[in-house]
Design a protein that fits this description.
Blueprint: E1 2-11, E2 17-27, E3 35-36, E4 39-40, H1 44-58, E5 64-73
Antiparallel strand pairs: 1-2, 1-5, 3-4
Length: 74
């Protein structure tokens, strides 16, 4: 299942937006990041949580975090 995920970078300290929002097309059937117990994620909220978790865990020492602002099924 494909989703358009729109996210912004935010300062960890102030929670103010850093830069512009970006949209990425993700395929939950092809990308292992979006599998939960071997089954592709199909609910927008679960896509949001997996996307944020991946980027924020990957960049734990960054001064910014990623916040998803929209998930749309394509």
């Amino acid at each position: 299942m494909k989703f358009a995920v729109t996210a912004v970078a935010m300062s960890r300290m102030t929670r103010r937006r850093v830069g512009k929002a970006r949209t990425e097309i993700v395929d939950t059937e092809e990308n292992e990041l979006f599998h939960n117990r071997g089954v592709p994620i199909t609910i927008p909220l679960d896509v949001e949580l997996a996307y944020e978790s991946f980027w924020n865990d990957l960049n734990k020492n960054s001064t910014d975090i990623v916040k998803v602002v929209d998930v749309r099924k394509l």
